[in-house]
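Customer ticket, subject: "Can you confirm the structure for DUF4407 domain-containing protein?"

Message body: Hello, I'm evaluating your service for our small team and ran a test protein. I'd like someone to confirm that this is what the system normally returns, since I don't have a reference to compare against.
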Amino acid sequence: MLQRFFILCSGADTEILSSCSQGERNKFAGIGATVFFTALMATIACSYALYTVFDNLFSSIFFGFIWGLLIFNLDRFIVSTIKKRNNRWAEAAQAIPRIVLAIIIAVVISKPLEMKIFEKEINQVLLEEKNEMTLANKQQLAEQYTPTIALLNEEIAALKNEILEKETETNTLYDTYISEAEGTAGTGLLGKGPVYTEKREKHDAALAELQELKKTNREKILGKEEQIAQLNAEYAQTVENTQPIIDGFDGLMARINALEKLPWLPSFFIFLLFLAIETSPIIAKLLAPKGEYDLKLEDQETSLETWVSQKVMQRSNILATDTQLNEKIYSEIVEEEAVYAYKKQKAEELLKLQADAFQKGELKSL
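Agent reply: Thanks for trying us out. I re-ran your input and got the following:
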């Protein structure tokens, strides 16, 4: 029963193969087994690849099964269409397009399994890429907020410098009127004279201006510090909102790109393995000598071709003979007087009827 199933998978004509030897049936059963297990591997590979996309086990298995059936049908078609010829070059020529298709199928099958085999290494590459993307994302977002924050800090520094300059000016006026009172500067007279009073008034006015400036600038500084705090909060919130996108950067395309960054030799050998599996039925058919099944299949095909050619030729001969007979018959009829007289009588009757009908129509129109 298992042998019959694998023979069915090989695409061979079971009626012809049933009349062949056991060895011939074993050969096609082996080819069919290769086709079946290749489709099975394609199902597993596609299911894993789709699971990385949809993250749903049942959907992945269902669509993976559909993909496996597609690969099974393609492989079965490829193997069943290769015919043994008496010319090796003709056999190779008909196998080239099928080998190209087998290579494409091998690439499609091997890639998801490579991702599963090297899953830990791929996760490490993805982790490094996510870290780099996180830093780059923070830097790009910071470029949107940094100029504004820097400008606000400069304005705060300018307001503080304005207060500092005013304090320096006030302290200078204070030292001036104190020195005047002590007689160490200015008029040089000890005591609180008119000059002292004038300088003291200047200092008091400057001190009042300083107090007002401090109050005004502190309010401005607090407002700008609130703006900076708000911008920092917006920046942190934006980073937090965009981080899940980076954390979710582990889809199918990301894993394929990560796989390409790993050493190529292990992946290449896995690809060669699946390429060997996929092309083995074709290579086996090309290398195997012309067997009993091939001879019987060729006999059946050539006998049908010969029979069809004979029928086509017979139809052509019948058509040519009928054409000659019809030409001869009608040429003899033309020369018969009875046929001529009968045709003349019918033509005269038709003309009379047409004339009568025309006369009746004209009379009605008057």
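A couple of notes from the result: Residues 2-118+262-289 form one domain. Residues 126 and 258 are 7 Å apart (CA to CA). Feel free to reply with more questions.
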